[in-house]
Write a structure and sequence with these properties.
about 300 residues; alpha/beta; Rossmann fold; eight-stranded mixed beta sheet; 11 helices; 8 strands; about 35% helix; globular
């Protein structure tokens, strides 16, 4: 990856509007809280799968998984959460409820639940919280779940410094150092970041659009990354098949947190991935795709 100093010049000078989106890749749809950027691939008759990304990296984080599943004949939807990628950055509180509403409205408008159709939902990191929350609120539309290094449990780490909780001061700090901090953390998500030189370039593009840092800060303050244990436990009392994948060298959400997830969900199928940090599906895509396919092919 490029030196982190390269992010110094990034400013939110662009606005996401209809004229700009005419030249952007993907498809767009209007939901209650704003325009959402998404992509659908694979045959209509294929089994539906939905991919939910994590805290700040938009839907391109699923490139290896999306391409593989489409090639296997699944009907796959991936999208940018509000505040990320090419989706709108509405001036609202970025809570579990907002992201659950976004997902449910998207599924309904794109008819991924037509005639009672059930979906496999796959969530990465913070997307794990959104995934289990959706299964808890709408179990009738969920066939299976897949969790990749999911958030939602205490990690023993101080995720948000106390100073970031002080109004006005947190906005000022985030305005001037937020971009640099977010990009620097990308390096920690890979064991070998040098193997993915284009990753940082793709990530930084979204940072040029107005509202990105505001949405990220709101998510930090309004969506508790460590308080979803009760939701996981409720989903664990269902008969929904669930697959858990975790990079053994993860430092973002430490590997040992997997035991809390397994304790909360007795029926879970767990696979650890060696030589991978927080993004095992990206860094060890062949291994993870094989595990994923076997899980999806089970009756």
């Amino acid at each position: 990856m490029k030196n982190v100093k390269s992010v110094k010049g990034i400013k939110e000078k662009k606005n996401l509007d209809k004229e700009v989106r005419e030249y952007l890749p993907g498809t767009f749809i209007e939901l209650e809280d704003g325009t959402v950027h998404y992509q659908i691939g694979g045959p209509l008759e294929g089994e539906p799968i939905i991919l939910i990304h994590g805290f700040s990296c938009p839907m391109f984080i699923w490139d290896p998984t999306y391409d593989f599943l489409v090639a296997q004949g699944f009907h796959v939807l991936r999208y940018d959460l509000y505040g990320r990628g090419y989706s709108d950055r509405p001036k609202v509180k970025y809570t579990e409820e907002l992201f659950d509403q976004q997902l449910h409205q998207l599924i309904e408008k794109l008819q991924f639940n037509k005639n009672g159709k059930k979906n496999t939902v796959i969530g990465l990191s913070m997307g794990g919280i959104i995934t289990v929350n959706y299964a808890d609120n709408h179990p009738e539309f969920v066939k299976r779940l897949v969790l990749v290094d999911p958030a939602g449990f205490p990690t023993g780490k101080k995720l948000i410094p106390r100073i970031m909780k002080i109004p006005i001061l947190n906005r000022l700090m985030f305005k001037y150092v937020g971009s640099k901090r977010l990009v620097s953390k990308l390096h920690n998500d890979f064991l070998h970041p040098e193997n993915f030189p284009k990753f940082e370039i793709s990530y930084k593009e979204q940072m040029e659009y107005s509202g990105f840092l505001r949405a990220i800060l709101s998510t930090m303050l309004k969506l508790n990354m460590e308080s979803a244990q009760a939701t996981y436990e409720r989903v664990g009392k269902t008969n929904i098949p669930i697959l858990l994948i975790w990079g053994e060298l993860d430092e973002t959400i430490p590997y040992n947190v997997h035991q809390q997830v397994c304790d909360a969900i007795p029926q879970i199928e767990f696979h650890s991935i060696q030589k991978a940090k927080h993004l095992p599906h990206y860094e060890q895509s062949d291994e993870v795709n094989e595990i994923l396919l076997k899980f999806l092919q089970k009756k």
